[in-house]
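Records of this kind hold a single protein each, on a pair of labelled lines. Below, a sample record shows both lines together.
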Amino acid sequence: MSESSFTLLRDIGSFSLENGEEVRFSIDAYRGYRYVSVRRYVSSDTFAGATRDGITMTPEILRVLEPLVAALPDDPAAVKDGPLGKFAKRPGICVVASVGTFRGRRGLDLRQWQEDCGFTKKGIWLPLEKLPDIKRLFAATKDALDEKPEDIF
């Protein structure tokens, strides 16, 4: 596999959505750097695999974002709309986390922001009714990042 492609390091877990869709959390590597990936996958008669809906975050972003997500109330009706934060990914690019409404449903939105043009197409919307699963996967991902890697000899 070439150095410029994503390599799956660890599959953290997933939760189901409607119509055979699911959201998967994983830790990947790209050009020697580790990233956390949150991506929507579909499975149908004609296609099974990853969609464009998703985002990658640095381990540092996840370590800061996880406690903010964990602090959200378990009852989706008690979660207030608004931003959770804006986190630098690399110079000129940030990840913005917010709670809001999309197509009449409330959810956690993780979206990439580029300083020169605003929000990009990169991002994912996670439904608030799946909040317990979202919290569990954020915590599991943080725990996996904090584990001491095994020595490879």
Summary: The two ends are 21 Å apart (CA to CA). The chain has two helices and eight strands. The CA atoms of residues 112 and 120 lie 6 Å apart. The chain has one domain: 7-146.
